[in-house]
Design goal:
Blueprint (H helix, E strand, L loop, with lengths): L1 H75 L37
Length: 113
């Protein structure tokens, strides 16, 4: 009977110690799991925020480009842009500096060869 009592007492002590330590580990584990979940949620939010920011920049760039192109086309289609410049008048004739006839420099002799 004493042996059975000792065995029962040891078993109960061992059970309560294991229950106490396992519940302590679960609290630590749940805190670690909670921390890891918060880290992953923060990473997910950062990725989503960066993706939204990139999409927003691309959309804003396309809008700015289309505005610039429309503005350039509007300037081309302006009514003053279609007018051709006037043709200048022909300048007056310039008289030559020397109006004497040009004579040959070397005279050829007429020979009967």
């Amino acid at each position: 009977m004493a042996l059975l009592f000792r065995f029962g007492f040891c078993f109960c002590c061992l059970f309560f110690f294991s229950l106490f330590f396992s519940s302590g580990c679960q609290e630590d584990r749940s805190a670690v799991v909670r921390q890891k979940v918060q880290e992953r949620v923060a990473e997910f939010r950062d990725k989503q925020r960066n993706a939204c920011r990139t999409a927003l920049y691309e959309k804003a760039g396309r809008m700015a480009d289309s505005i610039l192109i429309a503005d350039a086309r509007q300037e081309i289609q302006d009514s003053l842009g279609r007018l051709r410049p006037f043709r200048p008048t022909q300048p007056p004739d310039v008289p030559p500096v020397d109006s004497a006839r040009v004579a040959p420099l070397f005279m050829r002799e007429a020979s009967g060869n």
